[in-house]
Write a structure and sequence with these properties.
By secondary structure, the chain is mainly α. Helix content is about 70%, strand content about 5%. It is built from seven helices and two strands, in the order αααααββαα. A two-stranded antiparallel ribbon has the order 1-2. Helix 2 packs parallel to helix 5 and helix 3 packs across helix 4. It is flat and about 65 Å long. The N and C termini lie far apart (about 65 Å).
């Protein structure tokens, strides 16, 4: 229960709500209508990455303390959920209350990056040079969306590998490689 109380104290923190209000005001006034779906998708990806990370940590704790467990993939999710709420799991080596602060920090940093890039897209003039048209309204939001997506998918892929799902991880890595190849194709030798 101590963990839950710390989480609720952190959630009631004024600084967190002040940052959320600033992000809301800036996003509404400065960035336009496409900002909100991207922000919510980013938050969803952060949430999914966080849940898989916590799953990894709790399963690793169970593997370290229960000699009968030999395969991380065979540990039941119900046992992981119970382990998450036990005080013994919340220590420096496994889960720590600082992790909640890191998640809030990540949400704020990603939100500010989205605001900056969407704002640059709204305010920067179009560039027409050497037959190339650069439309900032499309380019800047597109850049930050791809970067944040790649960061979160790469982190999720690391969690899948640690959870023992190499097969799924290979498909995710192929997807990342295909996306990177579309953005910056490799030069052909010849």
């Amino acid at each position: 229960m101590e963990v839950l109380s710390k989480f609720l104290d952190r959630l009631a923190n004024f600084d967190l709500w002040a940052a959320a209000a600033i992000i809301y005001a800036a996003g509404t006034k400065l960035c336009g209508s496409n900002f909100w779906p991207v922000l919510f998708l980013t938050f969803l990806m952060i949430g999914f990455d966080t849940l898989t990370r916590w799953d990894c940590i709790c399963k690793r704790y169970i593997m370290d303390h229960d000699l009968e467990e030999q395969d991380i993939r065979l540990i039941k999710m119900s046992r992981v959920i119970v382990q998450f709420f036990k005080n013994e799991t919340w220590c420096e080596e496994y889960l720590s209350s600082r992790a909640f602060g890191r998640i809030a920090e990540k949400l704020i940093v990603y939100s500010l990056a989205l605001i900056i890039f969407f704002g640059m897209g709204q305010w920067a003039p179009e560039i027409h040079m050497f037959g190339i048209d650069v439309v900032p309204k499309n380019v800047f939001p597109g850049i930050i969306c791809v970067v944040l997506f790649l960061i979160e998918v790469s982190s999720l892929n690391e969690n899948l590998i640690e959870l023992g799902y190499q097969g799924v991880s290979e498909y995710v890595q192929r997807f990342i490689d295909a996306l990177l190849d579309r953005i910056a194709p490799k030069k052909k030798e010849g």
